[in-house]
Fold this sequence. Notes:
- The chain is mainly alpha-helical.
- It has helices at 11-24, 29-40, 44-53, 57-62, 89-105, 110-113; strands at 77-78, 81-82.
- It has one domain: uncharacterized protein sp1917 domain (Helicase, Ruva Protein, domain 3).
- The termini are far apart.
Amino acid sequence: MATHKIFTTPFAKVYPFYxxxxxxxxRTKEEVDQIICxxxxxxxxxxxxxxxxxxxxxxxxxxxxxxxxxxxQIKGVVCGVRVEEVQDPLxxxxxxxxxxxxxxxxxxxxxKILRA
Length: 116
């Protein structure tokens, strides 16, 4: 089975698009970072180290200190696919992140995005 292209894409190449999407909707880079840190367990320095090292998504998530236990509460559709029904664990993590960034860009409150 072929590996999906996004798995080998450097996280650092996609990260600016997350920030750009948020900023277009008057949200901030800091909010994007907060979401990523919440989901993955990276602190700000660890996130920056991952960006600087240009690890691919597979490595980025493999090295994540602690994937948030409330991530299972993330539900909805991204690119026409229900995130809670994605079978591949890595693809599901990527879709969770996409969904959270979408919620940020749509103006949802951080408390709700972070499933607090």
